[in-house]
Design brief:
With about 70 residues, the chain is mainly α. The chain has two helices and no strands. The protein has one domain.
């Protein structure tokens, strides 16, 4: 009889992946858009917010990668 392998990664981890990727892409987009603005406080704020969002998305994605490895049965 053939052995069937089923991926048993937790569903909550799988559900979070697209949201973390969307957060990462949003941060990257904000940084690019902020870089195209004229110099001033709006440029600084948009690039700062984009950088924080990008960093948060990257940390979230990395945490999910570790969680997938850690909790995989």
């Amino acid at each position: 009889m053939a052995e069937v392998t089923v991926q048993q990664t937790r569903k909550r981890i799988k559900i979070q992946q697209p949201f973390a990727l969307l957060t990462f892409v949003l941060g990257l987009t904000l940084m690019i858009m902020g870089g195209q603005e004229a110099d001033g406080p709006q440029k600084t704020a948009m690039m700062g917010n984009g950088g924080l969002t990008l960093f948060g998305g990257a940390v979230w994605l990395l945490g999910l990668r570790v969680a997938k490895w850690w909790f995989h049965d």
